[in-house]
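Audit log entry. Action: structure prediction of a protein-small molecule complex. Ligand: NAP. The ligand was supplied as SMILES and no pocket hint was given, so placement is left entirely to the predictor. Protonation state taken as written. Sequence taken verbatim from the request; no trimming, no tag removal. Recorded inputs:
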Amino acid sequence: MRAIVCTDYGSPDVLQLKDVLKPVPKDNEVLVRIRATTVSTADCELRRFDFALWIWVPMRLGFGIRRPRHRVLGQELAGDIESVGKGVRSLRKGDRVFAATGIGLGAYAEYICVRENPQTGAITTMPANLSYEEAAAVPYGGGEALQFLRKANVRSGQRVLVNGAGGSFGTFAVQLAKVLGAHVTAVDSAPKLEMLRTIGADRVIDYSKEDFTDSPETYDVIFDVVRNTPSGRMARLLTENGCLLMANPGFLQIVRARWAARGSKKGVVFGASSGTSEDLAHLRGLVEAGQLHPVIDRRFLLEQMVEAHWYAETGQKLGNIVVVVA
Ligand SMILES: NC(=O)c1ccc[n+]([C@@H]2O[C@H](COP(=O)([O-])OP(=O)(O)OC[C@H]3O[C@@H](n4cnc5c(N)ncnc54)[C@H](OP(=O)(O)O)[C@@H]3O)[C@@H](O)[C@H]2O)c1
């Protein structure tokens, strides 16, 4: 089968289209013919191996010291089940599925084996009203945003601010917070603000014109997906029982947020947070009910993966970049 192999850590040019062995499903796995996948900022960070210092060493040990051990990147997909292992009960040959691959990665390929009940990652049948390309953009950003918002126990009437709202996490976080009945403020660059209004943001802030941490306004939840906003200042903007969610913090940001929240009931949440198959089924329900829409920017073909990564590196993407595999 064809796959994009990450031959080294570095620029998008380390990605090469190669023929690799087609995987064979074990008893507890399904073989998925991948129709679409995505290029996320996290894929680019893995390819460059660009991580905060406090996770750099454990991540490097996990992903390969000299060069990537998981040589096929890609964290989400949509496709058809081509065959199932003999122990699989809940999925069938021919099912249209969407999946998050978890730490195993591997979605930049024509086929992948996924466990029926993955330890990290998720798989279930995809929303009936989406194309493969649209469905592929849901599991990673949608699953992680859902997990983070649950940790903050977002409730109707609360004020939620999403910092970095125009990307993969953010576009789902804005919509999920709206589904929960929150008043949502979305912060990102000017070209993304109109899209953010369209998906439901009540208020938008252009970070190049206004620093929300300068304002006295408070929030019940701040979901920060960007690494460069001072975390202590964000923690100080929280209401008494408020919660700061940090998707991508550096060590000092964690310390500063905890320090600013000391002696209060404010929560500071960080760390890996991946969605489960049940979460994916919940997202499918929201999509089918018309309450959640994946935001898709450009589409590329599998053989244009290098181009897709260069585009992701510009930071201009609105929501998600889709790669059509078949
Ligand atoms: N904790 C976890 O479980 C977990 C798991 C996977 C990934 N992550 C991390 O979470 C992060 C979120 O990824 P994502 O996929 O949502 O990223 P993304 O798609 O690149 O979105 C980030 C958004 O932030 C905007 N932005 C950049 N600088 C900003 C600033 N100073 N203020 C406000 N907005 C700003 C970007 O827009 P412009 O470029 O136009 O400025 C972009 O729209 C990644 O770094 C990833 O590694 C965390």
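Audit: result stored. The chain is about 30% helix and 25% strand. The first strand starts at residue 2 and ends at 6.
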